[in-house]
């Protein structure tokens, strides 16, 4: 949908809190449309993140995972990478007090290799300060890739086997899932990608097995509560079967 359109309103939902994951996409195009430098698009994207984090708990969302920087983003121009590296610092320095106070538990998932010592310390401090919270869970995927995370988990299990602490036959879906960076969070119910693109782009590949996918034609810096409501309204209309069939389908099949 165009940014100027007003999305439909989601009805208040019942049931357990949802896990929603969002690919924060479109910052560069947003800046280009306005004749602005790309870094200003990324900074506007931080404002969209603030709006979304504020709205999510009110809409029945208990876990929010956002894709901030992928393992593939290192191939971008050095100046843009430097700007992307600065975004967590900008976000946590201004918001960590409020996040801690409002019961948000922050976790940054992804590889630490390649990140500066200052950024790693900032991330570790943000996680430590909010570790006691349980009202709302915010996972930020940073220097993250779904394939890289699967490879890292496989490597960790192989090392455990080589050290004699595990046996190959012990490996199953649950054990493997516990080795991923996302361990401890439920699988996402809904994955949202704004910006008009319709792909996962290496985001939560293992975890997305039964997630519903919603694609929205709005650039991330324009994203806000109404767009999140629209995504939830579309999600609410889906029939989730997890590979099974319902009784009506059995009867119809004779």
Secondary structure blueprint with pairings:
Elements: E1 18-23, H1 27-33, H2 38-55, E2 61-70, H3 78-101, E3 104-109, H4 117-130, E4 136-144, H5 146-162, H6 173-177, E5 190-193, E6 212-215, H7 225-236, H8 247-252
Parallel strand pairs: 1-2, 1-5, 2-4, 3-4, 5-6
Helix pairs in contact: 1-2, 2-3, 3-4
Q: If you average the pLDDT, what whole number results?
A: 92
What gap, in angstroms, lies between the N and C termini? Answer: 41 Å
Order of helices and strands, N to C? EHHEHEHEHHEEHH
What best-fitting shape do the alpha-carbon axes yield?
A: globular
Instruction: Specify the structural class.
Output: alpha/beta
- Strand neighbour order, sheet with most strands: 3-4-2-1-5-6
Q: pLDDT below 50 for ≥5 consecutive residues: which ranges?
A: 1-10
Strand tally: 6
Percent of residues in beta strands? 15-25%
Strand count, sense and barrel status of the largest sheet are: 6 strands, parallel
Using the CA coordinates, give the radius of gyration: 19 Å
**Tally of alpha and pi helices:** 8
Helix content: 40-55%
Structure description:
This protein has 254 residues and is of the alpha/beta class. 41% of the residues lie in helices and 15% in strands. The chain is built from 8 helices and 6 strands; from the N terminus they run E-H-H-E-H-E-H-E-H-H-E-E-H-H. It has helices at 27-33, 38-55, 78-101, 117-130, 146-162, 173-177, 225-236, 247-252; strands at 18-23, 61-70, 104-109, 136-144, 190-193, 212-215. A 6-stranded parallel beta sheet has the order 3-4-2-1-5-6, with helices on both faces. Helix 4 (117-130) links the parallel strand 3 and strand 4 (136-144). Residues 1-10 have low confidence and may be disordered.
């Amino acid at each position: 949908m165009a940014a100027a359109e007003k999305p439909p309103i989601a009805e208040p939902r019942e049931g357990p809190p949802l896990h929603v994951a969002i690919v924060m996409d479109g910052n560069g195009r947003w800046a280009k449309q306005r004749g602005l430098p790309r870094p200003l698009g990324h900074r506007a994207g931080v404002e969209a993140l603030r709006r979304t984090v504020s709205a999510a708990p009110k809409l029945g969302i208990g876990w929010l995972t956002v894709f901030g920087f992928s393992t593939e983003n290192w191939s971008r121009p050095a100046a843009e990478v430097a700007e992307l590296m600065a975004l967590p610092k900008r976000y946590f320095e201004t918001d960590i007090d409020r996040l801690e106070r409002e019961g948000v538990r922050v976790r940054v998932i992804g590889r630490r290799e390649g990140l500066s010592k200052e950024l790693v310390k900032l991330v570790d401090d943000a996680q430590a300060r909010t570790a006691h919270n349980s009202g709302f869970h915010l996972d930020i995927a940073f220097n993250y890739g779904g394939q890289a995370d699967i490879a890292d988990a496989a490597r960790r299990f192989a090392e455990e086997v080589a050290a004699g602490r595990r046996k190959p036959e012990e490996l199953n879906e649950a054990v493997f899932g516990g080795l991923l960076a996302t361990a401890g969070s439920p699988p996402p119910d809904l994955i949202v990608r704004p910006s008009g693109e319709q792909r996962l782009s290496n985001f939560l590949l293992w975890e997305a097995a039964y997630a519903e996918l919603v694609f929205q034609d709005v650039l991330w810096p324009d994203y806000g509560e109404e767009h999140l409501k629209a995504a939830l309204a579309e999600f609410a209309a889906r029939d989730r079967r997890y590979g099974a069939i319902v009784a009506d389908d059995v009867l119809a099949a004779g």
